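REVIEWER CHECKLIST
Item 1: Sequence provided? yes
Item 2: Single chain? yes
Item 3: Sequence as submitted:
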Amino acid sequence: MNDRRTPKQRLSAYRLGSVVAPPIPESEGRLTRSVGLTLEAVGLNVSVGRQCHVINKDGRIVEAEVVGFAGEVVYLMPVKRVEGLEPGARVVPVAGHQGMRIGPQLLGRVVNGLGQPLDSAGPLVGDDFLDFEPEDINPLKRHPISEPLDVGIRAINALITVGRGQRMGLFAGSGVGKSVLMGMMTKYTTADVVVVGLVGERGREVKEFIDHILGPEGLSRAAVVASPADDAPLMRLRAAQLTSRIAEYYRDQGLNVLLLMDSLTRFAQAQREISLAIGEPPATKGYPPSVFAKIPQLVERAGNAEQGEGSITAFYTVLSEGDDMQDPIADASRAILDGHIVLSRQLAEEGIYPAIDVEASISRAMPNIVDQQQLGLMQRFKQLLSRYQQNRDLIAIGAYSPGADPETDAAIERFPHLRAFIQQGLDQPVPIAESITHLRTLLEPNANANTKARGPLAAQHRSAAKPTG
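Item 4: Structure as written out by the authors:
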C-alpha cells in the first residue's frame, strides 16, 4: 500500500511514536588494526560505549569498549593491557548491562574498575545488583546544602566548614600530605559510609593507603576502588566512574556518604590518553575538549538527593603539577566545585601538618551552614594570618617597631597560636563543636593573656613550625 503522506507528515508521525523504526541488528565484526592503545574493527553495528569481546584466534578473550567510529571503522579500547592480538580476530558485542553484587557486605572490600575483588576475601556478595550505568538527577530535586559535615579536622571544621552534599577540591602538589589528610577524614568523619577511589596512583601507595593510612578501623566502614597507574586508561576511567556509582547506591539507601577520590587529575589524564588515541585534536596544554566535558559529568553525580534522603559529600584531589595552581585541570575544577582546600608545600616543609593554606582555601557553602559569629571568627583568623604574612620579612629582620600598627601587633602576638590551630596529630580527631570552641577562645581579646609567647619574634616563628601532634 502506497503511503500518500508528505515527508513532513511522516516525520511528525515518527516523532509522535506512530511509526517505529525497525532496530538495526547487531553484527559480529573483525579486527583489522591495532595501533597504540586503539583497536580498529569493521563490520560492527554498535553504539559508542558498548562493550565487546575481542576473541583472538587462540581463543583468548579481551574485553573492550567502543570509543568512537569513522565511516565503517569502529574504534575500541581494551579495558586491560593486552598483547598478541592478531588481525582477523572476532569482535562480538556483549549483551546486557555490566554490574556487580552490592550491599553492606561491600564495606571493607577493595575492588578494581570492573567491580572485581582485589583483596583475598573471596567473591563479592550482596542483596542487590548494581548496574554500572549512572542515573540522572533533576537538579531541582536536590535538597540544598543546609547542615555541616564533621570531618574530624579542626582547621576544616572551623575555617573551611563543609556541608553535607558539598563537592570540594583538595589541591596539592606531590608529597605534601593529601593522602594522609584523606585517611584522617576517612577515620574521623561522622558520615555513615566512606567510598574511596584510588585512580592512577602508584601501586605501592594503594597498599600503603589501605594498610597504614586507613587501617582496619577506617577500612571497616569504607569501600575502596583501586586502579593503579599501570592500568589501561579505560580501566582508570571506569574506576572513577564506579567509585561514584557505589556512592550513589549508598546515597539511594538514605545514607550520608563521604566520597574521596584521588585523583581527579589522573581521571582527566586517562580521558586524554583515550581521546588522543582515537584522533581528537588537543586543545589546552594537550588536553582535548572532551576532557573538560567529562570532569563535570563525574563531579555533578555527587551531592544531595531529595529532601529526607541521603547525600554524597565529595572530596576530589587535584594534582597541581609543579605547584602550578593555573594548571588547566585545576582551573577547570575550581570553576565547577563548591570550594577548594589548598595544601601548601611551604607549610609542609616547615613541619605544619595538615599543611592547609587557610588564606587560599574557601568553602562556598559555608555562609549557608554556619552562624554569623563563626563567619566573623573565620574572617578574623584570615585577617590576622594575612597581616603577619605581609610583614613577615620585616618581622624576621627586626625592622618592625612594636606599636606602629595595632593590627600588626595583634597578628604578631597571635601568630604562633594561629599556626598551632592549623596543626593536628594523625591520631587526634577534633569534633566540629570543639573546633569552633577552640577558634572562639583563640580570637577572644584576652584569650592569650596567660600564654603569650616569650623571646624574640623570630624565635616565636620558629616555635610555631614545630609539630604538636
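Item 5: Key structural point noted by reviewer: Confidence is low (pLDDT under 50) at residues 14-20, 447-469.
Item 6: Recommendation: ____
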